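Practice record 12: protein with zinc ion.
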Amino acid sequence: MLTNIEHIGIAVKNRHDAESLYAKLLDRLPYKQEAVASEKVITSFFKINDTKIELLQATEEDSAIAKFIEKRGEGIHHIAFETDDIEAEIMRLVKDGFELLKGFPKQGADNKMVAFLHPKSTSGVLVELCMEIKKQN
Ligand code: ZN
């Protein structure tokens, strides 16, 4: 089941400029920065109640974020829905005709398992599914 909008991902050219801008806009500081080597991005997170804003800056030219900005400019890159069971949601959605991006699910930023639905199957919006990775005891 999808439980809430976990975050909105925004592609930015310069994380420091975007952080300053969003700090002003949201009237708070980012609470975390995190590099995701596998995605060639560095991220900054702001929190507004249960929803986060994730700023994404490419760390390499062949990063998906760099390509996105080259094609479409800065802006909303994806919407992430939280789920309590990512495998079950993927099965449900693929069965319903949504296209899963290759190589997912895998570990993403913010201690989460993530998967993406191809925008051509979701009216042009890159949709992320994410599920918190429970700490092993
Ligand atoms: Zn995301």
